[in-house]
Amino acid sequence: MYYRKCGHSGIKLPVLSLGLWHNFGDVDPFDVATEMMLKAFDSGICHFDLANNYGPSPGSAEVNFGRILKQHLSSHRDEMFISSKAGHDMWQGVYGTGSSRKNIIASCDQSLKRTGLDYFDIFYSHVYDGETPVEETMQALIDLVRQGKALYVGISKYPADKQQQAYDILREAHVPCLLSQYRCSLFDPKAQQENFQIAADNGSGIICFSPLAQGLLTDKYLNGIPEGSRAARESGFLKREQVTAKRVEAAGKLNEIAKSRNQSLAQMALAWVLNDNRVSSCIIGTSSLAQLTGNLDTLKNLEFSAEETNSINQIINNPELYF
Known about the structure:
Blueprint: E1 3-5, E2 12-14, E3 16-19, H1 30-42, E4 47-49, H2 60-73, E5 81-86, H3 101-115, E6 120-125, H4 134-146, E7 150-156, H5 160-172, E8 177-183, H6 190-194, H7 196-201, E9 205-209, H8 245-260, H9 265-274, E10 279-284, H10 289-296, H11 306-316
Parallel strand pairs: 3-4, 3-10, 4-5, 5-6, 6-7, 7-8, 8-9, 9-10
Antiparallel strand pairs: 1-2
Helix pairs in contact: 1-2, 3-4, 4-5, 8-11
């Protein structure tokens, strides 16, 4: 495993982190979740990315993570970097969502109880809700650090103007933003274009999620929508209509470049995100031990030739591919 510094801090993260957004909830096989988490840790992945609403059902990923930690890894807590977040819909009622101080503090307390942890290594504001003053949300994060419930704080998916405002408030309070989390992939360059440099200029590390565009940047959809895949389900983040002919065609062309690199399309897509030296880590989400092992093999080839870069850019330089 390779490790990179988070901005101007002393923290290093593995270039691949394990996300528990999917496949670790109470609808998923607990033994498979356990195998993946232990394999990840044994392979040098010490960062595990959670949020209060991860599951399904919401909260169940934190519960299962806590069970696995207690049963197998409790003696290794100081070797692990564990995150959680709050801001998206979590429980019914007016206070169960958003970026208010009440939601942030209550969510952190609930997440600590579900995981069985005494503190999180980093706690994020999961999303700017468009209503709560940034000052209120950042003060809640600052207070979590001062209360000992989090060692560091971060922001996720903040638009550029609110992103800079958050950095300024946190810096003034001497609780700088350790990590800024954004969606990024070959089919989703928006944050790379609009947010990455702001983060770098302010000393924040960058951690990316959805590097495989919900599976579109794998070989899964090269020949249509398989039964049981995310796009085939009635509910989910990847919709059937998002598996467009242009995206499938582009994925096919990218797959040919990946083959020439002795990589799968997924491995090349991960390597492409990590090729940006501003990125501290990339979050992978896996549903099986084989998938996790395949993602880890990405580390065998992280470099791109000028010819490969040019060929990739020619394929992806098309707004019709973007999310």
